[in-house]
Each structure stands twice: as structure tokens, then as C-alpha cells.
Amino acid sequence: MKERSRLSQAVQSGLKAGLVGFLVLLFLIPVGMIRDIRSERENYRAEALADVSSKAGGRTLLAAPFLAVPVRWEARETNAKGETLLRTRREVYIVFPEALALSADARVELRYRGIYAVPVHSADAALDLEFTFHPSETGIPGVRIDWAETRLYFAYDDSRSLRKSPVLTGPDGVRSILRSSASPIELAARSVSVPVRLSPGPAGDARLAGRLELSLSGAESLRFLVLGDTNTVKLSGDWPSPSFAGYRLPVERELGESGFTARWFVDEPARVLPRVLAASDFRPESTAGADFGVEFLQPTDVYQQVHRALRYAVLFLFIPFAALFLFEVLSGRRLHVVQYILVGLANCLFYLLLLALSEHIPFLAAYLASAAAVCAVTTFYVSAFLPDKRQAVLAFGVLALQYGYLFCALSSEDFALLIGSVGLFGIVALTMAATRKVDWFGGKGEAGPEPDGEPQDLPDSPSTGES
Q: Which of 239, 379, 393, 453 could form a disulfide with 108 if both were Cys (CB 3.0 to 4.6 A apart)?
């Protein structure tokens, strides 16, 4: 009978272990639903950000101004009859600055759409420009330059990104307003231009110097596309958490609580286009990825943090179930499957609480409040059916330790693998230490069969009589 009872206990322990594993898999369904809610809320934020951003001018790209210089030359051609004719060919040559010095000051404020905040910026920029152009740079013998038809162009993507018309101040102090006009190249979606006076000097080349003043607005980012020989960009702003991104990083930068300053320098060998080229030779894809600048990021992306926390959901369902199972084995008291389910639901709701609270309060406060609520309600619940109150305290410690471990993993993304590996090894080691004396065939105690009790005298065999 005792062997049969031991066998029954072993079967029950095996079935309960299998049930715990099944519950972990079953709870992946509500975890998946919470993951979908997170994605939906992130999409809502993206829609709000796109709506506010588009009305403010979108992501601002400040491209280098350029000169459009019309040229013409005579070319000999042979017609169908074999006659040689002179044809006048026309082309527009694009001339980027020989030197460009850009300075800009950005002011950032948060605009709200519902609960979602979007960083919107306004910036005043000044571009000191120097152009040089010699007819020989076209590579066309006998080329004639239409100096009087030369125009200065500034390209931009969205009309809402210009708070007022750009103004060009020439070396003589004359101020000219740039007006909308079609650009000879597709550097951006829109462009403004103004006629400029070029006249060749004694060496046959023409020079132009001036300052272009811009008032810009936009959202999310401010980027620059410089295409001259020598380019210097200085940017300052009042945003405390800028992210420098793009083709190159600044050579100098200073960050502080009141804002930032940064400086980029791009020399002739790093440019992506020739300084002088024919408009017909320009390809828009040649400038793809050549811009750089700053992203006005929010200090914490709560949806990304919650997404990373959900990666540990399986482990954080397994740990409380495993702890309850060990308490059950070590105390010899059976727990109902409903009790496992309720503990699992509480741990699932941690992620939903974290998502909901982090949209309204800082992520650290949301995490601490969610973890404290789950630890408190779980400890209060298990203390009612665990025979030893010290086990309830131990359950609280296990839960607090697991949420502390998760926060360390979320805070140290570069060391997440190391933290996860050490944590898993520690869980296995502690489980082995706690169950090293458990007889899985019969409950708590030393492994191996137990003696059945004191030996008893066997009854005498029936006597058949005296021999």
C-alpha cells in the first residue's frame, strides 16, 4: 500500500509539473493580446505625430543653395543628307558654393495631440555663401555664358517649413526676396529663386558673395545637405536630449540641461557631387543619405521599453509558477489550478499596467507602481493558502527580485544578454539547491526508498503435528 501511495504521489507531481508548463504556454495568449495593444497604441502615437508634424512643416531639410547658369555653344551636326550644320546647344550648369558657412539657432516646444507630445521646432538660419565659376569648368570649348540670366536657387520640401520668404543680401547691401520658381534639378520638392548679377573678371571667372537668411519651422528633426567645397555648419538649440544622426557626426558638440551646440565641417573630398555639373547630369539618388543633423527625440520611448519588457514574459510567468510548485512539493500541501491561474493573471496584468501608466507618468514611476501592485496583491493572495507565513514573505522576495532583474535588463540594453544569462543560471541553481533533498517519488525527504518500519516477527507456520 505504501509503495502504491508513493507511486500515486509521483504521478501527481508529474501531472502538476506538466500542468504548470501548459499554463505558461496558455498565458502566452493574453501576453500576445497585450503585445497587440502596445502596437496599437504605438500606431496611434505615430498617427498623431505625423499629423502634427505635417502641419508644422515636417522633417526639415536645409539644402545648400546653388547657382543655375545658362550656357550655350555651337555644335557641328550632320543631317540626313550628309550636310554639316551648326546647331546652337543650350544647357543649365549647376554651381554649388565654393565656401558655405551656416549658423542656425533652433527653439523646440512640445505640441500635444491628445496624450501624445510632438517636438516642434522653429529655427533662424544664416548662410554666408561664396561662389566662383569659370567657363572652362563646363569642359565645353567655345562655350558662352548668359551671365545676366543666372539665378540663385534654394530648394526645400514643404511650403509650410518656410515661416517667411528667404532673403538674399548681396555684397552691396541690397536685399532681394526669393520667390517660388521651378528648379532645374530635383534637389527637393519645391524651390525659390532670385536673379543674381554675375560678371566675369579679368581672368574670365565670375564671383558672387552674399548672405541668405531663412526662417524655418518643422518637427522631429533638422537636417542639412551641404554640397560645396568647404562647408561649416553651426547649430544651437534649447532641446536637452538631441540625437545627432545622418551622414556624419559633429566634430564638436556640447550638451547640457539648457540645450546643445554642435559644429560640423565637410571639406571638398567628402562631397557627394562635383561642385559644377550640368543639370541634365544630376541624379536625385546621388544625394540620398548625404544629409546630417539632429533628431529631437523624446527622452524615453515607452512603447519600445514595454516591447522589450514583453520579451521576458515567458520567463516571468514561469518563475511564479515554479515557486508555487516548489512550495507545494516542499510543504506537502496541494494547490488548486485556479490558484495558479490567478497568480499568472496578476503577472500578465503587470505589462498592461506598465503600458497604461507609462503613457501618463515617467517610465520609472510607472514601472515601480506596476511592480509594487503585482507583488503586493500576489503576496496577499498566496499568504492565505501557504501553510507557513514565511513562505509568503519568500514569495514576495521572489517577485520583487524578478521585477528588479527585469528593470536592470531594460536599463542596460548593451548588457541585456549578460544579465539574462546570469539570471537564468541563478534561477536554475537556486531551484537545484532547494530541491536537492526532495524525493520526487514520494515527496519531501532524502532521495531513495524509505524503510517501512520496525521488522515484525512472522507468524509461526501451522503445525502438522509431532514427528
A: 239
Contact present, 437 and 447 (Cβ < 8 Å)? yes
Q: What does pTM read for this prediction?
A: 0.70
Q: Assess whether 94 and 234 both reside in one domain.
A: yes
Under a CB-based contact definition with an 8 Å cutoff, are residues 223 and 233 in contact? no
Number of helical H runs and strand E runs in the chain: 8, 21
Domain total in the chain: 2
Q: Same structural domain for residues 253 and 219?
A: yes
Question: Do 164 and 269 fall within a single domain?
Answer: yes
The answer as to whether 33 is a domain residue is: yes
Q: Tell me the C-alpha distance between 218 and 110, whole Å.
A: 12
- 454, part of any domain: no
Q: Domain span at residue 130? A: 60-298
Domain check: are 154 and 37 in the same one?
A: no
**pLDDT values of the chain reduced to their tens digit, one per residue, 467 residues:** 555 555 555 556 567 667 777 877 888 888 888 889 888 888 888 888 888 888 888 888 888 999 999 999 988 777 777 777 778 889 999 999 999 999 999 999 888 887 888 889 999 999 999 999 999 999 888 899 999 899 999 998 888 888 889 999 988 889 999 999 899 998 888 899 999 988 888 888 899 999 999 999 998 889 999 998 999 999 999 988 888 988 889 999 999 888 999 999 988 777 788 999 999 999 988 888 889 999 987 766 788 888 888 887 887 788 887 777 777 766 666 778 888 888 888 888 899 999 999 888 888 899 999 999 998 988 888 887 776 777 778 888 888 888 888 888 777 766 767 776 777 777 778 777 766 766 655 544 444 444 444 444 444 444 444 43
Question: Is residue 462 assigned to a domain?
Answer: no
| Residue 301: CB atoms within 10 Å | 14
d(CA 303, CA 179): 43
In this structure, are 28 and 75 located in the same domain?
no
The DSSP 8-state label assigned to residue 280 in this structure reads G
Residue 461 within any structural domain of the chain: no
My answer on whether 401 and 292 are in the same domain is no
- Asked if 359 and 413 sit in the same domain, the reply is yes
DSSP 385-441: T-SSHHHHHHHHHHHHHHHHHHHHHHH-GGGHHHHHHHHHHHHHHHHHHHTTTEETT
All three cell numbers of 133, joined, read 565659376
State the CB neighbour count (10 A cutoff) for residue 133.
24
CB atoms within 10 A of CB 412: 11
Q: Are residues 170 and 280 in the same domain?
A: yes
Judge whether 38 and 354 are in contact, CB under 8 Å: no
What are the phi and psi torsion angles at 311 (to 5°)? -65, -25
Cα separation, 286 vs 290, in Å, equals 8
**Interatomic CA distance for residues 96 and 64, integer angstroms:** 7
